[in-house]
């Protein structure tokens, strides 16, 4: 049995998220439909993790098993033929039989884009969180430092999260300013449900002066979701890379 | 009578272009609808020029007359309330009564984005021309030099163009490479119908090695559209700025 890993870029705007659901169309479902046409023996695909409705991926990773003899370099093109233009397979590789997209991931990189300035953008309306208020970047950077390292991120995850162990390590958290864009990059060994969006929502509250940078360590220790900032909207979030 | 100039950003994907038409929904029509709600006396808006179906604008310029007493800094927000999210008014200013968006424009800046590499992009599918072939940038730059200056651009305009005088001046033509993106910027005193898209289509043919850079001056002199390259697709083109 061949175990094939594929890399997928998608625009999450019109999907209920990665994961197949009863209500709404998912990215996974669209890929399964395409797999069904290209490799007739494949009814299952495992992603590295979920992304929410409206969240994008520059490079989601997933794997599936097949007996198909299709050459590996033909896989992206063959799958793309049966996919809508807002989902593109951008890579494929043969993996050992035991390779698992989720269990074997050792980390993930997310990107979050904020658009500052008075007016929202027509061209990038589904690509950013538009924040009108002027932001104190010095305070934001001070707050960012507190998230780095290993912490219990209970306060920075959705109450709906069912995972028991909420300790995660953030290896990297950086910002870059390009014109009106404020781009965050965050790399960690794993992320809890809504964790990136709550961290960003909290950083923006700090930038607005509504929360002090110094309280971040206290919020982490208190493990209380209601002390952290709001969940930033989905359309600014991009799964950038899954690390193995 | 107040003469108000507005600046507009739009995503051209779902429109038949700037200009009001019998078939299809235009950007102009959407703005007119909004103007009708905000300033009840306004039934006309003059743009700096047309953009085709699928072509975008970072900053289109237009003006209209009104007796309305609305404060100028309230105009963008008021109009945006009645506009779809893919059209945003991003500026407004009072102008002298004789100001005319088209006649008084002394130049325009356009941007054209090409995406290179094997795979098209899901996230930017309506924002680029995807060109798979490897491109010889040295040859493209050699060809670019021939477009600069004052020429009769008959060969680089649509045969449908009804303008008599086809002499235009290209003041600036530059490229920038950012990752997989190849971005052209072109500034001139005015552009004929499809002129930017035919220049870009020709430059890509040169980059592919299908046309020699040295033939550009001959094509200009021959004034023969069929000797130039194809018209590049609309979704890579952005009206960046109208100069007054």
From TrEMBL, chains A, B:
What are the recorded GO MF terms, alphabetically? RNA binding; tRNA pseudouridine(38-40) synthase activity
Q: Which residues are substrate-binding? A: 110
- Highest taxon of the source? Bacteria
Q: Where is the active site?
A: 52
The EC number(s) given in the record are 5.4.99.12
Domain (Pseudouridine synthase I TruA alpha/beta): residue spans on this chain: 8-103, 143-244
Which InterPro entries does the record cross-reference, listed alphabetically? PsdUridine_synth_cat_dom_sf, PsdUridine_synth_TruA, PsdUridine_synth_TruA_a/b_dom, PsdUridine_synth_TruA_C, TruA/RsuA/RluB/E/F_N
Could you tell me the keywords of this UniProt record?
Isomerase, tRNA processing
Catalytic function, reaction form:
uridine(38/39/40) in tRNA = pseudouridine(38/39/40) in tRNA
What Gene Ontology biological process does one annotation of this record name?
tRNA pseudouridine synthesis
NCBIfam families referenced in this protein's UniProt entry, alphabetically: hisT_truA
Q: Which protein family is named in the record? A: Belongs to the tRNA pseudouridine synthase TruA family.
Describe the function of this protein. Answer: Formation of pseudouridine at positions 38, 39 and 40 in the anticodon stem and loop of transfer RNAs.
Q: How does it assemble?
A: Homodimer.
Q: Which PANTHER family match?
A: PSEUDOURIDYLATE SYNTHASE (PTHR11142), TRNA PSEUDOURIDINE SYNTHASE-LIKE 1 (PTHR11142:SF0)
Q: What is the protein name for this chain?
A: tRNA pseudouridine synthase A
């Amino acid at each position: 049995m061949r175990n094939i890993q594929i890399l997928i870029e998608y625009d999450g705007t019109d999907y209920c998220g990665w994961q197949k659901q009863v209500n709404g169309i998912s990215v996974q479902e669209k890929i399964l439909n395409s797999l069904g046409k290209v490799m007739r023996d494949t009814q299952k695909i495992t992603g590295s993790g979920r992304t929410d409705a409206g969240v994008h991926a520059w490079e989601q990773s997933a794997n599936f098993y097949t007996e198909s003899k299709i050459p590996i370099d033909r896989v992206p093109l063959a799958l793309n033929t049966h996919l809508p233009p807002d989902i593109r397979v951008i890579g494929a590789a043969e993996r050992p039989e035991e390779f698992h997209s989720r269990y074997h991931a050792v980390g993930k990189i997310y990107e979050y884009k904020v658009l500052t300035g008075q007016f929202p953008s027509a061209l990038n309306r589904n690509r950013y969180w538009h924040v009108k208020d002027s932001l104190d970047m010095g305070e934001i950077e001070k707050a960012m430092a507190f998230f780095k390292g290993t912490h219990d991120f209970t306060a920075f995850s959705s109450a709906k999260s069912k995972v028991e162990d909420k300790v995660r390590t953030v290896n990297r958290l950086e910002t870059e300013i390009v014109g009106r864009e404020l781009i965050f990059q965050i790399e960690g060994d794993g992320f809890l449900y809504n964790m990136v969006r709550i961290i960003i929502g909290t950083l923006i509250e700090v930038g607005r002066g509504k929360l002090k940078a110094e309280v971040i360590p206290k919020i982490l220790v208190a493990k209380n979701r209601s002390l952290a900032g709001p969940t930033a909207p989905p359309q600014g979030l991009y799964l950038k890379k899954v690390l193995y």
